[in-house]
TrEMBL record, chain A:
This is Protein-N(Pi)-phosphohistidine--sugar phosphotransferase. GO terms for cellular component: cytoplasm. Keywords: Cytoplasm, Kinase, Phosphotransferase system, Sugar transport, Transferase, Transport. It comes from the Bacteria. One of its GO terms (biological process) is phosphoenolpyruvate-dependent sugar phosphotransferase system. It is an enzyme of class 2 (transferase).
Automatic annotation (TrEMBL), chain B:
Signal peptide: none annotated. GO terms for cellular component: cytoplasm; membrane. Residues 1-128 form the PTS EIIA type-4 domain. GO terms for molecular function: kinase activity. Its main location: cytoplasm. This is Protein-N(Pi)-phosphohistidine--sugar phosphotransferase. It holds the Pfam family EIIA-man. One of its GO terms (biological process) is phosphoenolpyruvate-dependent sugar phosphotransferase system.
Length: 164, 137
């Protein structure tokens, strides 16, 4: 089961490695990202960021969905990461056992040349496509929220999207 | 929550606090002293931190062994067995102590310090990829 699906364009980094894996008590981390799954340098940096004692799996989004739906993983608390909302939506639409989706950090450092972006809260900067995916995400029957670090309050994405 | 003071020459202490806030949102859990950035006498600030512990365990991080900040801290800490002083402070050790849920003991501190050393970064040798099955075991 997925204890939390986090959308974070830095994938595994300080906030995630140090704080969230402890908070969520998840022995397994799954990075669902097509680029990472095919890029050995990215894999190396993700392995370096993984805390001691935690298992890491790096898979394309489609292969990660197979892992999440594998009956062997039913009792295992997994921490799933994508770096964009579109990938998270695909996982949410194809995996039934997700406790919550945390849309934490997206697009703030992305190339701004590709058209207009939409600011949602202080840590989300979304393209048209990502904004549409986020709206779809909130229609599913899963809690969708933003909480950058555990000491922050959980903010509902649906209420952040009002008037967008 | 363990009570923590970071004291440094210049803005290292508040700089560590800033990193701590970004990484964990817990920057407000530490007290900081940036010594010598102005004429402020920081010794009373050290005293105040120790007094407010009221016998509880406290941890003071300093920047440099033998440096004047560390010296002033050692003078104030004398006879206070509830206060640990750590020097040569880096971000990993501060993070480890801040994130440690249990009350700090000497043995625990030694363990955290051993895991927080500066290191030469090399590519991980263990490059084995887990299969789906071994991950899910």
């Amino acid at each position: 089961m997925i204890a939390q699906l986090r959308v974070d364009d830095r994938l595994i980094h300080g906030q995630v490695a140090l704080v969230w894996t402890k908070e969520l008590d998840t022995p397994g981390i799954v990075v669902a990202n097509d680029n990472a799954a095919s890029n050995e340098m990215v894999q190396m940096t993700l392995k370096m960021a993984t805390p001691t004692g935690k298992k890491l799996l790096i898979r394309s989004v489609d292969d990660a969905i197979k892992v999440f739906n594998n009956p062997k993983g039913k009792g295992m608390r997994m921490f799933a990461l994508t770096n964009n909302v579109t990938d998270a939506l695909k996982i949410a639409q194809n995996v039934s056992d997700i406790d919550g989706i945390n849309v934490a950090n997206v697009g703030r450092f992305a190339d701004k040349s590709e058209g207009e972006t939409h600011q949602v809260g202080s840590t989300l900067m979304l393209s048209d496509k990502e904004l549409a995916a986020l709206k779809e995400l909130t229609k599913l029957d899963i809690p969708v929220f933003q909480q950058v670090v555990p000491s922050n309050p959980k903010s509902s994405i649906a209420s952040m999207l009002k008037n967008k | 929550m363990n009570k923590i003071l970071i004291a440094s020459h210049g803005h290292l202490a508040s700089g560590v606090q800033s990193s701590l806030e970004i990484l964990t949102g817990m920057g407000n859990k530490v007290t900081v002293i940036d010594a010598y950035v102005d004429d402020h006498d920081y010794v009373p600030d050290i005293k105040k931190f120790i007094d407010e512990l009221d016998g509880q365990t406290g941890i003071i991080f300093t920047d440099l062994f033998g440096g004047s900040v560390n010296q002033k801290v050692m003078l104030e800490v004398a006879d206070h067995e509830n206060v640990f002083v750590i020097t040569g402070t880096n971000l990993p050790i501060v993070l480890s102590v801040v994130l440690e849920g249990e009350e700090i003991t000497k043995a625990k501190l030694e363990e955290l310090i051993a895991a927080s050393q500066v290191q030469l970064v090399e590519e991980p040798k263990d490059d084995t990829d887990l299969s789906d099955d071994s991950f899910l075991e």
